[in-house]
Hints:
Blueprint: H1 2-11, H2 18-31, H3 35-47, H4 59-73, H5 76-82
Helix pairs in contact: 2-4, 3-4
Amino acid sequence: GPEKGSKELASRVVPLPLTEVVHKTTKSLAAKNALPRLTEAVATLVKEPDSPNTGRIREDRFRTVLEEVASQVLEPEEVQAIFPEKGGL
Length: 89
């Protein structure tokens, strides 16, 4: 039936490119005057880099921080629009 097809589709959802995730997250948070929360979270992330020598941070960690802040502030639908791979909780 149709519900089976939509389930299969959901399991193959491709995450948005990081640049798009950043853009959508910042825009949505700014609309709710919540950008400072993201700024703080990112500042904390930068203080604990994955590679102390280069200061590099893994993309998945950055995504996780974006998602955590987003889910604290945004509606579930908004979060799912930015992180479709999570498939809605």
